[in-house]
Design a protein that fits this description.
The chain is α/β, with parallel strands linked by helices. It is built from nine helices and twelve strands. Keywords: DNA-binding, Phosphoprotein, Transcription, Transcription regulation, Two-component regulatory system. This is Two-component system, OmpR family, response regulator.
Length: 224
Amino acid sequence: MRILIVEDEAELNRQLKDEMEENGYVVDCAFDGEEGHFLGDTEPYDAVVLDIGLPKMDGISVLEAWRRDGRTMPVLILTARDRWSDKVQGIDAGADDYVAKPFHMEEVVARVRALVRRSAGLASNEITCGPIRLDARSGRVTVEGLTLKLTSHEFRLLSYLMHHQGKIISRTELVEHLYDQDFDRDSNTIEVFIGRLRKKLGVDVIQTVRGLGYNMIAPDTAKE
C-alpha cells in the first residue's frame, strides 16, 4: 500500500514517514500544498495524510481541488486541536477522517489502516483468502495456521492483492502501489516477487490473467 504524507513540519513529516514504513506502507512525502496537490493529482495513492495548515496552498484547497478532479483516495486530515472549524471544513471538503494535533503516531496509523480497509470494502483487519490469513494490524500472515515468513516486498504485494481479491490487477498497478516515486519502476520485478510468493504460500490462489495481470481468488471459488 502506498501513502502520501503532506506535512510542512519536517520533523513531524519524518516521524510519520518512519511510522508508516514500519507498519508496511510505502511512503511519499510533500512539504507544501503545491507539491502535495501535484503528487496526489498525478500518482495513485491508497491513502493520504494531509495537514490543513500548509504553505503555498492550504490543505483545504488541496483537498477541494483533488475532489473536483475526481480523485477519490481516502484522506486523513491533521488539524489543530482547538480549531473545530478546520475539522468541519475538512469533512465538507471531502476528508474521510481527521486527527487533532498533538496526536499519538499509533492513532494515525490505525486511522489510515481503517481508511484503506474501508476503501477496499473490508470490515476487519484480518483478511482471508482460502487458508491464507493476513492481519493488517500485526503484519502477520498464516497459511492453515502456520506463520509465514515474508520479506517486506512480498508482504506488501500479498496485502495489496488480498485487499483487492477477485479483481484483475495489472503489473503496472502493482508497481505504482508498491513502490515510491523514486523507485526504478521495472514491472518485470513483479513477476519475480509473484513467483516467490506463490512458492511460499504453497496454495494456488494467485492466477495469471494473460495480457492483463493477476487475480487473487480463493481455491474453492476458482473451481466454480
